[in-house]
Input
Amino acid sequence: MLYKNGVIIFFCSFLQCFITKNVFSSQKREWLETPIAKSSDGDVACFSEYMEMWIHSERIEDLEFWLSKTSQAQVSVASLDHLNLQLSACGFSLHKDADKDFIFRVSYTGCFVQQQHGYNVLTLNLVKRINRFGGRTQNITMKCPVVSVIPSREHIRCDPQYIQVTRQIPHDSWNNELPWSLSLRDHLIVALEDASLIQINTDVNGADITVEGRRREILSSVEVMEDEGEFLALKLVSGRYAYSLEATCPKALKSEADETVLHIFKRRMGLTRRGSVDSEALTVSHVSVNQTDKFTVNQTSEFVILVIPTTQILQAETCVSNKQLQQPFYRVDVVLTFRETNHQMHWSMENTLPCTDRPAV
Output
């Protein structure tokens, strides 16, 4: 099935579907079973807003000692939730990976991070204890290129049948292009050219990528503070990197509602670690809406909830399928700032509602 220029094309014989299903199963198994390269102790990975270092569990005491010394407070990895509350003031966090080793994350704006010759640099003076009387010092340097601009825009188009998401294609910290695949709900993974296997169409136009699919096939229902929406759990993935294409469409309802409720998914907009199991809490600190200053903001751990009086944004045009009807629509352009991130999030949505009768004159 394809959707192009407003036309739906569907053809799939039993044999073709059977072959496609088996090819997809083989490809999916290959992609899922191909592991991301295993890190070695002290390896540093660079992402858009932070860098990470892999630390073997046998060396975690060395990091504990350094963190205690620099923060002038006793630090323990016994409770990572409590520890990360302590470390958040400095832009640090610590997480366990699947092998019970540790990943030390450092924000580029974190404590003791310096910019040197175009790089963000943090030097850790780790003391390897030899006995109770002393130890041996080892200097480990975390170093990543300075990234002055990250892709921070997302444009979403929703109508009663389809969702479309457009974002800039990211590069790594050295401005290299990456070979991207699509990951739907974190377990269906296909190369971009095979996106139709997961009922998604893609279009790369210059620096942007647009993904599109039928709402009923790729969206999942989500409830946010007693209001319903439909969520697209989609990412670009490449090696250790992930890049969010996640988006939410409002339920395809009539336009008579007094208020329009929008759900904006919280996340870092640049490159992040693929498969990260830690749930980073982001706190919205400022919101502006281009179309109106009449709105209210709430937030959960995952979403920013924007409530706007419908009359402030709703417009109408002639319905394409029936000239006697009108088609309501609106566009909202939002800029969000989070306390924990270095860059603003530029989010826009165009939502087309079902055609309705024209108002009586």
